[in-house]
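# nightly structure sweep
# worker-07 picked up a monomer target from the shared queue
# config: single-sequence mode, recycle default, output format = structure tokens
# input follows
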Amino acid sequence: MMGRYRWFVLAVAVAAVAVAVAFVIWRGRQLEPRRADPAAKTTFTVEDVTVASPDLNIDVGTVRWTYHPEYTDWACLVECREDDGCHAEVQLIMDYISLGKQQRLILGDRLDAGYGETVRIGRVQRPSVEVDRIERVTVEVLGAFYRGAPTPTPME
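# output follows
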């Protein structure tokens, strides 16, 4: 009888230790800081962006980035607010936070839009990045042109 009692006590002790170890492992995983899995949601959109555009009256309505394992696809939807239209070579300087660090990305394109028209400016960034938030978008005008003006011939 005493032999069965010892085996029973030993089995209960082993089970209690196993439960305690499982609890410690489970609790430890819950306490670890978790980063959002970028693959879980691939497209992110920000509509409330601080914009600095002293030379051209435009509105950056949306900044969108799509995460892919090899690259991040960026797109900015820009609305022209100039009465005569927006006709300029521009670059958008995107200041953003990635994994807690300040980063910068430059998007460039030619705007040729009338008042109220929306234009997409975008590019691919390699390698892919995680974006915590967009801090600011600064618009720089590199050169102006007039609608219908001939395209300059590149010099060799």
